[in-house]
Each structure stands twice: as structure tokens, then as C-alpha cells.
Design brief:
With 658 residues, the protein is mostly helical. The chain is built from 26 helices and two strands. The protein has helices spanning 3-23, 29-40, 53-70, 74-79, 81-106, 112-122, 127-134, 141-171, 176-210, 216-236, 241-254, 256-259, 264-301, 308-333, 346-355, 361-368, 382-407, 417-437, 442-456, 464-487, 493-510, 514-538, 542-573, 580-597, 601-627, 633-652; strands at 373-374, 377-378. A hairpin with a 2-residue loop joins β1 (373-374) and β2 (377-378).
Length: 658
């Protein structure tokens, strides 16, 4: 199967599962994505799918871990560093040893080295999966912080122990002393490589900022290739590539203050690109699990064993999962990780840390990274290990999803949707009043006010039919005004006809479906090209055509300049609570049309100044309300972010007003 087609299908499946996640609230997103993968497995080309382990670790896990490190609060990590390493190293190693021996006792037919490999696979936790399960629940901050920081580093513990187990299986030799030294080299070597190379990348970005060449076309690709380059370099030195990208992400986090000097556009593009990319990568992981599951089951049931062996493997997965929960609970209860929790909340928090040891991307990636072939033969017990690992992943997702909602309240906020809407409207009205007070050109003032008012309807969507009804009334008003201008001798009948034809054309376009609009645009460009061809044959002077076009546009601009203010006045007069979203949409439509006709540099300068002042007044309003304690700091942050986004959108679309 073409790799392009395969990736395209995965993207579509991820997008579709994310859409389902917004409607299906009782299941974690990861479970929905696994089910989506199961559905894909029925497609012929997806049958008997096998994933390349090296590509999986490099292409998916490396950027995910870098992004996790980059978004880690370094101050909080320093404060909890001892607990983090206790959970990520001490707990991980103890769990692997105990679960390894238990796995060997339950599966005596497999070599002990592979039993430890299985234990190393199912030990690492996944902060993204935890967030997916606890998204709408009020999980205590200390418990969530411990789980997130643990997942950054216990991945490396699992991977290092996994590599040691596979090496012992390949060679048949195991030296405890050499293994400890190897573990320390791989673990801390990865951190050092990631720290050095991550620091060099940060210095490069700061150099680009200082030389004013930090545009998105340069910074975003550099940030995109960074985790791949660091991972490969660390692997070249036989250190942990995963820990290297985590360390580089943490360096990026520590330099966040300096990197804020990067242009707003670059920061927004970088952030958005990484969020979309990591969301896709997380989706790929669980969809691939669903796709691979039927193949694993098929291979197990066709190895000469009875189907009942699947039931025993599920039982083994359940036992190992329960034992890992018990080990985690005892670890924090015995204060081997001293987490700052009020005595009254200790039992609950310890249980939450135990049960939220949810497994996901790293567990799956290590399971798939088991070689398919060893010494020219199929790797023994590979499917058994993958099946048990998948069982543990699914259990770790389902059990908290069922138990936690019964124990924890729904997540509460210091503000409601009504508060957001109310204070956003007050903020915009405050800015609009200041725009009015500036006493600038009425048309330009109205254009800015219309844009600001359109922000108020951010939580509303205009109703299509209602919008067209109001728009039709505006078209009727235009016809009436045109006729009055003809009767008064202000314009000619030719100009009236030309303007009405333009309005009719725009009305037709607004009522078209997507397909109709696409076909119409294709026809338009075909006619345009044919006219150019005819002019070349007839050798028509292009300057004559341009002059005629400019004259016609200027005539339309004069007529439109008389009509627009009256249309805006009509819309303001009929604005009410029921049609706010529709009116704002129509105002934006007329404002954009006005911009197309009026090519006025001074008007653009007035608008730019009014917009800058309006955004500054919105910031002032938030600060004023926060100072009076009318709003919480969380709501203030949300409003600040919305104003910043509005400002950025205006800056990016500034060319529209030119």
C-alpha cells in the first residue's frame, strides 16, 4: 500500500474520531480511536498490518515526548524533582522486577528475559492518556502534577530496561553490574545529549531573532525537525533518544521568556502547528493499536494453539494490571515518594496516583518495536506480548473511566460560559465607546465598530435562512436607494444597471452550494482566460482594458460610497438580541465589499489606528475589572487570550483593508 495513502487514511480516521469524541462523552478519546482502528482493519489493504518499530519511535514518539517536555512547568518540576525521580526510576525499576517475575510465573513457557521485556513494556505511564480520561473531572493538582512529571521520565526507564531484556534474550548473557552501568549511561547520557543539543537549537533561534529573520518559514521548520534530529543524534551515541528529546523540550521551556521575543505571528503559527501535529500523532498511536489488534489475534490463533489461549492471555493482562496498581499504591503510601498532600486527602490521592497509572503511546510503541524476525525466524511470543500489552492499555483506560466519575466531582471553573459572554460583550462595548469618542471619519469608524461587534457573536452562529431574509431586505433597500438616486439625477441609468447587476451576481453567489460555487468559479476563470486569448489574437492594448475596468470600478465605488452608510444605519436600527449573529455577519459582508471598492490609503490608516486603540482599550478593561475583583484571574487570562487572538487575526488580515 502507498505510504501516502496510508497516512491519508490515518489522518481522516483521527479527524473523524476527534469529531466523535466531542459527541461521545462517556468514553475516553483513546478508546474511540482504538475502535476506529478496529473498523479500519476490515479494509482489505489494512489486513495483516505490521508497523516498522524504528519508524514508529522516531516519527511519532520523539515529537510527542519533545512537546510534553516543552509544555512542562519547569518551576514545578524542580520543586517535585525528588518525587518525580522516585516514581520514574525507583517505582519503575521495582515494578519491572516484580511484574517480570510474576509474568514468568504466569507464563512459564516463555524465556525469563521476555517476561522482563513484557514488564518493561507495560510499566511506563502516559500523561496524555491520563488527561483524556480525567478531562472533565476535578483531579487534585498535586496528583495530576505527579502523574505528568512521572510520565516524562519513566518512559526512558521502561525503554532502557526493555533494551536490556532484549539484549539478554539475544545473547543469552546477563550481567547485573554491567546492566546497572549501562542503564546509568543510557539514562543520563540521553539527558546530557538532549540538554546540549537543545541548548544549541535555542541559541540558534535567539540568533535568528536578533538578526530579524525569525519568520515562520524559518522557525517552524527548525522546531519541526528538532525532535527528530535530537533523537537520531542521541541514538548514535547509544543513549536514550526519548530522554534526549524530553531534555531538549525542558530546555525550550526554561528559555520560554527569551523566546517570547519571537514575533507574535511566528509564536502563533508554531504553537498551532505543534498542537495539530501532536494531536494527530496521539490519534495515530491508538488507531494503529486498533488496526493491529485483529492481526495479532489471528496470528495467535493460527500458531497451533486453541482459541482458549486468548482467554488466558487476557487473564494474565488483568492480573498484571491489578498488581501494578497495588505496587503503585504501596509505593506512595509507604512515602517512598513524599507527595505534599493534606492528611485528610492522602488516601484519596494515593489511590488516584495508583489507578491513574494509565498506559498508552510508549507501551504500544515498545510492544511494536519487538523485532518481527530473529535470526531468520519469526520472533517467538511476539504476538502474546503485544496482546497482553494491548489488554493492559485498554484496562488502564476503561477502569479509571468507570471508577473516577463515581469518586470525583465534575471539573469546576471560577467562571461560567455566561460570565465569558457577559464580560466579553462589556469589554467590546467599552472599546466601541472609545472608538466613538475618537470622532474619526464616520464610515471608517463604522467599519471598525462592525468588526468589534462581530467579536461579540463568537459563541453564536448565524442562522442561514434568517441571514438570507435580512440580506434580501438589504438588497431591496439598495434597489430603492438606487432608484431615488436616478430620479434625483445623481447617477445614470447605466450606472444603476451596472450596480444592480453586480448586486445580483453577489446575491447569486451567496445562495450557491459549495459545488455550485466551485463550478461557477471554474467557469469564470475559463471565460477570463478565453478573453485574454481573444485580446492577444486581436492585439487589443491591455492598458485600454485596464483603463475601462478602473473607470467602471470608480463609478461603482462612488455609488457604493453613498449606499453603504445607509445600509449600516438600517442594520443598526434593526439589531436586537435575536438577530445579533446574523446582523454582524451581514455587516461584515458589506464592510468587506466596501473595502474592495474604496481604495483609500488615508481610510486604511484611520482604521489601523482605531483598531490598535480598540485592542488596547480591551486590555485596559480586563485589567480594570481584575483590579476591582469583578472577574477571576482565570477569566481574565481567557479574555486576554481572546483579545490577543483577535489582534493577531486583524494583523494577518490587514491586507484586506489595503
Amino acid at each position: 500500500m502507498s505510504i501516502v495513502f496510508f497516512v491519508l487514511i490515518l489522518i481522516i480516521a483521527t479527524v473523524f474520531s476527534n469529531a466523535l469524541d466531542t459527541k461521545i462523552k462517556f468514553l475516553p478519546r483513546a478508546i474511540i480511536q482504538i475502535m476506529m482502528g478496529l473498523a479500519l482493519s476490515f479494509i482489505p489493504n489494512f489486513n495483516h498490518f505490521n508497523l516498522n518499530p524504528e519508524v514508529f519511535m522516531l516519527a511519532i514518539i520523539a515529537p510527542l515526548m519533545f512537546y510534553d517536555g516543552m509544555n512542562t512547568n519547569i518551576v514545578k518540576l524542580k520543586r517535585t524533582l525528588s518525587n518525580t525521580f522516585s516514581l520514574a526510576i525507583g517505582l519503575a525499576v521495582v515494578t519491572i522486577i516484580l511484574v517480570g517475575y510474576l509474568g514468568y510465573a504466569l507464563l512459564p513457557h516463555i524465556p525469563i528475559a521476555l517476561a522482563f521485556a513484557l514488564a518493561a513494556i507495560i510499566t511506563p505511564t502516559d500523561a496524555v492518556a491520563v488527561s483524556s480520561v480525567t478531562e472533565n473531572l476535578d483531579l487534585p493538582n498535586e496528583a495530576m502534577l505527579s502523574l505528568k512529571n512521572e510520565s516524562l521520565f519513566n518512559d526512558a526507564s521502561g525503554i532502557v530496561m526493555f533494551d536490556l531484556a532484549l539484549t539478554a534474550f539475544h545473547t543469552g548473557h546477563f550481567s547485573p553490574v554491567l546492566s546497572i552501568f549501562n542503564y546509568l549511561y543510557v539514562f543520563f547520557g540521553g539527558l546530557i545529549v538532549g540538554w546540549i543539543v537543545g541548548w544549541l537549537f535555542v541559541r540558534l533561534q535567539l540568533l535568528l531573532i536578533e538578526t530579524d529573520i525569525d519568520n515562520p518559514n524559518i522557525i517552524v521548520p527548525i522546531n519541526f525537525i528538532k525532535p527528530f534530529a535530537i533523537y537520531l543524534l542521541a541514538e548514535m551515541f547509544d543513549t536514550s533518544g526519548i530522554l534526549a528529546v524530553v531534555a531538549a523540550g525542558l530546555i525550550q521551556s526554561t528559555q520560554a521568556q527569551s523566546l517570547r521575543l519571537t514575533s507574535t505571528k511566528t509564536q502563533m503559527v508554531s504553537k498551532t502547528t505543534y498542537e495539530i501535529f501532536t494531536n494527530l500523532m496521539n490519534g495515530f498511536v491508538f488507531i494503529l493499536l486498533g488496526v493491529s489488534f485483529p492481526t495479532v489475534i489471528y496470528d495467535i490463533t493460527n500458531e497451533g494453539r486453541q482459541v482458549s489461549s486468548l482467554g488466558y492471555l487476557i487473564l494474565v493482562g488483568i492480573i498484571l494490571y491489578i498488581v501494578m496498581i497495588i505496587i503503585r499504591y504501596l509505593w506512595v503510601t509507604l512515602k517512598l515518594a513524599n507527595i505534599r498532600i493534606r492528611p485528610a486527602d492522602k488516601v484519596l490521592n494515593h489511590f488516584l496516583i495508583a489507578i491513574n497509572g494509565i498506559h498508552g503511546t510508549i507501551t504500544l510503541s515498545m510492544a511494536f518495536s519487538i523485532p518481527i524476525v530473529l535470526h531468520g525466524k519469526i520472533f517467538p511470543f511476539r504476538n502474546d506480548i503485544i496482546f497482553i500489552a494491548a489488554t493492559v492499555i485498554i484496562l488502564s483506560l476503561l477502569v479509571p473511566s468507570i471508577i473516577l466519575p463515581l469518586m470525583l466531582p465534575a471539573k469546576s471553573y471560577s467562571y461560567s460560559l455566561e460570565d465569558i459572554s457577559t464580560y466579553r460583550q462589556k469589554m467590546i462595548e467599552y472599546a466601541i465607546k472609545r472608538v466613538h469618542d475618537a470622532d474619526e471619519d464616520p464610515v471608517e469608524t463604522q467599519a471598525v465598530i462592525a468588526t468589534l461587534r462581530s467579536q461579540q457573536s463568537i459563541l453564536q452562529r448565524p442562522k442561514r435562512n434568517a441571514t438570507y431574509k435580512i440580506l434580501q431586505k438589504c438588497f431591496n433597500l439598495e434597489e430603492k436607494l438606487l432608484q431615488e438616486m436616478v430620479d434625483n439625477g445623481e447617477i445614470s441609468v447605466k450606472q444603476q444597471t451596472f450596480y444592480e447587476r453586480m448586486s445580483l451576481f453577489q446575491s447569486f453567489q451567496l445562495h450557491q452550494s459549495f459545488i455550485q460555487h466551485f463550478m461557477y468559479r471554474a467557469r469564470f476563470y475559463f471565460i477570463k482566460l478565453s478573453h485574454r486569448f481573444k485580446r492577444r489574437i486581436k492585439r487589443v492594448d491591455p492598458s485600454v482594458v485596464t483603463k475601462k475596468f478602473n473607470n467602471a470600478r470608480d463609478e461603482l465605488a462612488q455609488v457604493e460610497n453613498e449606499i453603504s452608510p445607509q445600509i449600516f444605519a438600517y442594520l443598526r436600527e434593526h439589531l436586537n438580541a435575536d438577530n445579533r449573529a446574523e446582523i454582524h455577519w451581514i455587516e461584515e459582508y458589506y464592510r468587506e465589499r466596501h473595502r474592495r471598492f474604496q481604495n483609500n490609503t488615508r481610510a486604511n490608516e484611520i482604521q489601523e489606528e482605531l483598531f490598535i486603540n480598540a485592542f488596547q482599550n480591551e486590555y485596559n478593561f480586563i485589567q480594570e475589572q481584575l483590579g476591582k475583583k469583578n472577574i477571576s484571574r482565570e477569566l481574565a487570562s481567557l479574555l486576554y487570550e481572546q483579545v490577543s487572538n483577535d489582534e493577531w487575526v486583524y494583523m494577518q488580515n490587514d491586507s484586506i483593508y489595503a
